[in-house]
Amino acid sequence: MAMYGSRDSARAALEQDLEALVRRLTVESQRLAHTFAERHGLHATDLEALIHVMDAEGRGAPLTPGDLSATLRITSGATTAVVDRLEKHRLVRRDRDDADRRKVHLRFAEHGQAIAMEFFGGLQQLNTALMAQFTDDDLETVRRFMTQMGDMISTHRDAVEHGTVGQLPSD
Fold first, then answer.
1. Which of the four pLDDT bands, split at 50, 70 and 90, describes residue 170?
2. Residues 166, 104: Cα–Cα separation, whole Å
3. Distance (Å, rounded) from C-alpha 36 to C-alpha 115?
4. Looking at the domain covering 21-158, what would its CATH class be?
5. I need a surface site. Which of 23, 60, 63, 94 has the fewest CB within 10 A?
6. Per-residue pLDDT reduced to its tens digit, 114-127
């Protein structure tokens, strides 16, 4: 019997291989992220915040500091410290909303974009070449799988944080 159960069927073996590959992807991604953070004097939370700011801006919906605080699950004071550090490193900037000057949006600063491109640009090229090997249908299947894996992990994390791991959902 394998560590995580039996490989009695081809399906079970495939599932175990996929689980191991997801763990490997997670570990390798974390190692790369830590290397980027170390090279640029960032804390782990700073890097997570930077990624959220970058992704939100890419979606055309820039975050406010309050949004970032909720996303990171940290206090407003801790969020201010994170944004101050990122701004000091010229990775993000605070922009006032044109319609409501009281509202501040966090933006991925040009310097942040430049150092991210310098560090991750080669990875982007490799990623593009890798994805070119797959059909649109293949990529749609991977997207569906990765989305559901992310949702599952988020749900499990919430259960761990709320002390409900192992409890069946109530009807």
1. low
2. 41
3. 9
4. mainly alpha
5. 60
6. 999 999 999 999 99
